[in-house]
Request: fold
Amino acid sequence: MESSAIILRCRNHLWLVAFTLFVVWYLLLYVLDWSSLSPITQNHVSIQSGKFNPVDITKTTNEINGMSPSFNRVKDRRNKHGTAEETTNGEKPIKPLEEIVSKNQETGKSSEKPRLSCSGRYIYVHEIPKKFNDDLIDQCQSLDNWTNMCQYMMNKGLGQQLPRDKIFGNTGFYATHQFSLEVIFHNRMKQYDCLTNDSSAASAIFVPYYAGLDVARYLWGSNVSERDSGSLEIYKWLKEQPEWEFMSGRDHFLVAGRITWDFRRGVDEDSAWGNKLMLLPEAKNMTILTIESSPWNSNDFAIPYPTYFHPSNDREVFQWQNRMRKLKRRYLFSFAGAPRPNIGDSIRSEIMSQCQKSRRKCKLLECRNAGNKCLKPGYLMKLFQSSVFCLQPPGDSFTRRSTFDSIVAGCIPVFFHPASAYVQYLWHLPKNYEKYSVLIPEEGVKGNKLSIEAQLEKIPKAKVAAMKEEVVKLIPKVSYADPRSRLETLEDAFDLTVKGVLERVEKLRVQGRNSNFVGDEEYSWKQSFFGTLGNDEWDHYFKRRSKAKYWGK
Reply:
């Protein structure tokens, strides 16, 4: 009997041991997040083979600390030529595989983004005085004469999170202000994977000056000295830094989160609009990013307005894209906006009139007073989600934030002027604009010579379907991901902007210290879009008359 009891106890212990081992095995296999391991462990220690490569560890540690394996060689080249060249082993950045991304879009899954080499991608961020950025956020109540901007500075510049409902789904939507891009971009830059603390190893230098927030305080009822003070001070500070000497500022870039015309005051009169941030000599050397650029100048580059959509991972993007694909759209076209009676050549009144006459085929959302529905994200996104085409005529300037909100909603944009998108967002939108949009000449709409409804209805259904799919694919490219996280396989608007800046700086580096735009800047839009000055297809859109029409000169 005693031996039987001993055997029974042993069996019980064996079952307990077996059960414990099973639980440990299950946790290791299915619960533990191996992707959370450090890059050194994840990329350079093989769990299966047990092999360990100390050389790779050193390489990875160098990259984490902000320098490439060939840092000393790069530094020597730059000291000699003012240039940071590619590593001697010819290492190239590894691009994400399009096939993987395409498959993930279909399945709604995401996979880990392949590790990119930092060769040619290092960025140094200037530590500028806080009066140029952080102090502005602290003084958010004084940034706008009519709006308390503090609510829009929350969540790293995204604003307050919007409710998860049938309009916004379960993805990352926020009440983002159209002029908060400087804050969002700066916070995204803090998460950039190739930052360096050594400026001599950098391919480009970022200046986190909140130029738009700064000038917004003085756009109304101020003198030119107040409006220009920030621009003059930041340029003076930059020129005193050793980094400026390498390329006279041609490797420097900043984000001015308003339209270009707010920074191009041509005369020193208090009644004139804006400041002269972009007209100062130092600005001619830098790359300045705005939400609308000047077609007639070559030192500013347009990047998308911030939208309400800020995904925190690939899955949120894929889920939203699939949802936009499946929506049944009730209206052929829609317009959200207000007339511009003070702008003589504006076609908005004609557009609104045609929409009202189209009855059930067009939905109009008028923006006429301070409490209008156009200021409420839910009404706008519901309108765009219910429309096949969204009309995007010029307003106070060529471009509209509405363009990007409508793209996020899967609505095909309809433009009436090439400067509303095509010659603007060259890094983010397809050059073949007919793939994702419609261009109806504004002169045809003026006087109701053309019927917008008729123009849209004659587009074959198959082409409309293809355009809708192209618009849905553009969603991540025109969205800024949540600065507190990263996308895994997709490139967002920030990623494409940084890539464009690095390519531009490299071209300037190859051309030399004294490189400038070749030719008349008046036609820089043509050179940028067509690649030649010989194409005169759109010349009539960009005559001086149009220039005066949109910014008072």
